[in-house]
Amino acid sequence: MSNVDEILAKARQMPLLSSASTRLLALLGDENHELDDVTKIIKTDAALTARILEIVNSAAFGLRQSVSTVSAAVPYIGEKLIISLAMNQSAPQVFNRPLLGYESQRGELWAHGLRTAIAASALSKKSRKEVHAGVAYTAGILHDIGKSVLSKFLTGCSPDMIKSIESGEIHDFLEAEEKKTGANHCEIGKELAKHWKLPMELLQAIAFHHKPSECDENCKHLVYVIHLADMIAMMGGTGTGTDNLAYKLDKKYTDYIDIDQQGIDDLLLTVLIEFEKTKEALFGSEKESEG
Asked: Are 216 and 210 a contacting pair, CB within 8 Å?
């Protein structure tokens, strides 16, 4: 078995998402869904139900009366926070462990994904062709899932990879991954997305977020949104370790997104503020219980 075959096999062996998470991902891609549809899916997952009720009754929401049902909780929490929570809870083997190959601490992949999601949601509103904000947000969270598989095969390699980029020997970290393993995290992420049976638009965003010009034509606006959102998240200081800002920006994003440099600067601040709010909402209740 070649190195690439071993990596692909590892992706196919990753635990599946929960049934509720898979159904939520499919539902949120449907622009015609209703909030009641989201509630019905959540009710089928006891752990997700319990966590949502814990969060909505936490100090972060500051509600005067306790909320005891999912139906009452969902409007307060909102779909974006629900998908963040569902993915974090459903795929801890992806988001809640260190990525040694990227010299990345536990939680950094999740933090970067969340910042990218927030930026992507905002950029979707500036797309020159309609991009569903919920799909953009979800794609932002998931875009780097391939790193969770590839990391093991890059352990100890990051310093040499960065030196090769700085010397001009190779183009960017994506090429460095390919040189070391025969594959890159986008390709492996695509395989994991197939394993998880993710919708096609999410698969395209995961597979091509560093090379948006190569994606299917009907997904280009979404993929360019994720491409730029990823760079904005890294510009804000949150990457996934040694590869932070070690990728090239495709400047053709202006053909797909109506934003200038001032808009990007403003979005950097927005992402920082919204990230802190979301983090407090998701994890503030855990701190309360620890206290």
From this structure: no
List domains and CATH numbers for the chain: 18-90 (no CATH), 94-281 (1.10.3210.10)
Which sign, positive or negative, has the C-alpha torsion 186, 98, 6, 86?
negative
H helices of 158-241, in order, are: 158-166, 173-181, 185-195, 200-208, 220-235
Per-residue pLDDT tens listing for the chain (291 residues): 468 889 999 999 999 999 999 999 888 877 788 889 999 999 999 999 999 999 999 888 888 899 999 999 999 999 989 998 899 888 888 988 899 988 888 889 999 999 999 999 999 999 999 999 999 999 999 999 999 999 999 888 878 888 888 888 888 888 889 999 999 999 999 999 999 999 999 999 999 999 999 999 999 999 999 999 999 999 887 666 767 666 889 999 999 999 999 999 999 999 999 999 888 888 764 554 444
Chain centroid to CA 156: how far? 25
